[in-house]
């Protein structure tokens, strides 16, 4: 059975992964009803947070133990339904096992603290999951096999950010990822519906509060890179977040420890999709500043497709294939290099001066691949970014928007032959299922041959 068939199996029978003990490899001792199972947030080199929600008000104990020393911590939370505990005093780039014990059972997983300095790391990016639960569930299981350090979501997690049940669905389907990887959120228009202030969003996510709009606009550092998340539901021209980002970019440019800069904003400054570019962001001058200070990549969503473009040294990515109905390419933007309307996720590996982006469809095939290299003498200067191994391909124009019903996307023309790193794991699962089936058949054949007296 091919990896493509196995993903189809995951899609049709999501319980298979759990039965095989693969999707839940981090270990959950007992699974009982819990609206929001424990998940990891706001990981730094020396601290991490755990959040969860219990079905009723209770006091819950969370424990953390080092996997490389005898150090251990315990914290009680509650009585409450919404729980958040933070562990501090940890060691960078180290693994810890957490245990959360409640009336619903005991939950365990292993999480790793952030690195310091130039140590290589990997992060995943996806967005616009919304109500595409079938795709999202499968994609999260596939992404969970990747040896990544954290995840960025480019916004539109749910179809209606005011509804708690929608958020609980999101957390349920993304739990294979979020139980061990911190997810850094970007506010989409669906989270901020009717200017609600994104209260549910702020309750669910715990990220740095270091801007005029706490948790909705923020920055964090991972290794040698600085990440900025801004909110395109709010104004840019003459607005506090614009001044904040300008100051952040200017100060970061003076920090010798930072080599790479990334920005996540839901509405992309450039797009070939039907929504069109974010003109206010362009008019605010912020994109010029990003270019001036050498931002490596911007990540966006909103137009449900994948797109990579290059504008005067600034690479922009639209990754909005997390489950929502796929859009079509309205008009190929002159700066666009690769465009494909398909469900997918992005994988970014940062190693020294090098940033390697690969993009994977749900069937495990490679959609796009590019490397950016920051030249040493001008690490924060746009002309110092060299784009290599770019694979420019003509954009395809789909005749009509695709059927919104979820399902594994078919590979487009020009699909590369390289397979996702998850293929090995899929193979192991297939072998496991095959062996179990053979043993089952052998057992029953022997029972049927046994003579009766
Ligand atoms: Fe959107």
SSE layout and pairing:
Layout: H1 3-12, H2 15-19, E1 36-41, E2 47-66, E3 72-88, E4 95-102, E5 105-112, E6 121-126, H3 133-144, E7 150-153, H4 164-178, E8 183-185, H5 199-204, E9 218-222, E10 225-229, H6 240-253, E11 260-267, H7 279-283, H8 286-292, E12 297-301, E13 306-311, E14 314-319, E15 336-340, E16 344-351, E17 354-361, E18 366-374, E19 385-388, H9 423-449
Helix pairs in contact: 3-4
Bound molecules: fe (ii) ion.
Residues 156, 188-189, 266, 302 line the site of fe (ii) ion (FE2).
Question: How would you characterize the overall build of this protein?
Answer:
It is a single chain. The chain is α+β, with helices and mostly antiparallel strands and 453 residues long. It has two domains: 82 residues, Immunoglobulins (Immunoglobulin-like, Sandwich); 268 residues, Purple Acid Phosphatase, chain A, domain 2. Helices cover 22% and strands 31% of the residues. Strand 16 and strand 17 form a beta hairpin. It is globular, with a radius of gyration of 22 Å. Fe (ii) ion binds next to loops.
CATH architecture of the largest domain: 4-Layer Sandwich
Number of helices: 9
- Largest β-sheet summary: 7 strands, mixed
> CATH homologous superfamily name of the largest domain?
Metallo-dependent phosphatases
* Number of domains as seen in the coordinates: 2
């Amino acid at each position: 059975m091919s990896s493509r068939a196995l993903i189809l199996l995951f899609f049709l029978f999501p319980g298979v992964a759990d039965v095989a003990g693969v999707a839940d490899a981090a270990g959950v001792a007992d699974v009982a009803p819990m609206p929001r199972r424990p998940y990891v947030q706001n990981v730094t080199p020396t601290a991490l947070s755990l959040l969860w929600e219990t079905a009723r008000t209770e006091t819950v104990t969370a424990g953390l133990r080092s996997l490389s020393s005898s150090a251990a911590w315990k914290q009680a939370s509650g009585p409450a339904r919404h729980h958040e505990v933070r562990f501090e005093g940890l060691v960078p780039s180290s693994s810890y096992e957490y245990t959360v014990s409640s009336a619903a059972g005991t939950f365990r997983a292993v999480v790793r603290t952030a690195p310091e300095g130039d140590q290589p790391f990997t992060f995943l990016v996806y967005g616009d999951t919304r109500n595409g639960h079938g795709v999202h569930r499968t994609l999260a299981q596939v992404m969970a096999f990747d040896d990544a350090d954290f995840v960025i979501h480019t916004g539109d997690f749910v179809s209606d950010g005011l509804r708690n049940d929608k958020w609980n669905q999101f957390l349920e389907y993304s739990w294979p990822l979020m139980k061990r990887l911190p997810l850094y959120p970007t506010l989409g228009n669906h989270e901020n519906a009717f200017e609600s202030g994104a209260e549910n969003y702020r309750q669910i996510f715990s990220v740095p509060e270091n801007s005029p709009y706490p948790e909705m606009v923020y920055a964090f550092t991972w290794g040698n890179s600085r990440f900025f998340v801004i909110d395109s539901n709010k104004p840019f021209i003459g607005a506090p977040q614009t001044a904040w980002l300008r100051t952040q970019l200017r100060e970061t440019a003076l920090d010798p420890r930072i080599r790479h800069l990334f920005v996540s904003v839901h509405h992309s400054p450039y797009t070939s999709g039907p929504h069109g570019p974010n003109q206010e962001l362009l008019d605010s001058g912020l994109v010029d500043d990003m270019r001036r200070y050498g931002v490596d990549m911007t990540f966006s969503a909103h137009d449900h497709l994948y797109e990579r473009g290059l504008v005067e040294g600034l690479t922009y990515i639209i990754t909005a294939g997390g489950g929502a109905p796929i859009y079509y390419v309205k008009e190929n933007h002159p700066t666009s290099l690769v465009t494909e309307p398909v469900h997918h996720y992005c994988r970014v590996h940062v190693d020294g001066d090098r940033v390697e982006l690969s993009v994977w469809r749900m069937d495990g095939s490679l959609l796009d691949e590019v490397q950016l290299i920051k030249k040493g003498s001008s690490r924060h200067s746009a002309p110092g970014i060299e784009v290599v191994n770019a694979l420019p391909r003509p954009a395809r124009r789909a005749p009509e928007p695709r059927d919104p019903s979820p399902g594994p996307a078919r590979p487009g023309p020009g699909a590369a032959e390289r397979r996702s790193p998850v293929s090995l794991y899929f193979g192991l699962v297939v072998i496991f299922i095959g062996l179990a089936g053979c043993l089952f058949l052998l057992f029953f054949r022997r029972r049927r041959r046994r003579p009766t007296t």
